[in-house]
Design brief:
mainly alpha, iron, Cyt_c-like_dom_sf, Cytochrome c domain-containing protein, electron transfer activity, Cyt_c-like_dom
């Protein structure tokens, strides 16, 4: 009887395990914090000669910020990049699945801080 009782309770979860929280740096660096996200999760589709914007290291900053097409410095919520990351009226990017809240918060912090090329 004890074995059955232990088996019945050993697989019970009150809640789903929390997603690990990645600390966001005080100052977000485009080259150190943002570009690596593109390199890891986006570059397979968003490379030179493929789907816009071109997120290769040599082209990504200008591709995202030129004419405020994807990024509106200081206004993440209005930026189409943010909307794609959260699925706000746009398809979720990356297509492999929605990013963690901490990755999205990192990109938003960079945009809200002026989307600097640092």
């Amino acid at each position: 009887m004890l074995t059955v009782s232990l088996m019945a309770t050993s697989c019970y979860y009150d809640e789903m395990p929390a997603e690990p929280v990645t600390p966001i740096p005080e100052t977000v660096s485009y080259s150190k914090d943002i570009q690596p996200l593109w390199d890891t999760d986006c570059i397979s589709c968003h490379k030179t000669g493929a789907t816009s914007p071109d997120l290769t290291a040599a082209n990504s900053y200008l591709a995202l910020t030129k004419n405020n097409k994807y990024v509106i410095p200081g206004d993440a919520a209005s930026s189409s990049l943010h909307k794609s990351l959260v699925g706000d009226g746009a398809a979720i990017m990356p297509t492999a699945g929605k990013w963690s809240d901490s990755k999205i918060a990192l990109v938003d912090k960079w945009i809200n801080a002026g989307a600097l090329n640092n």
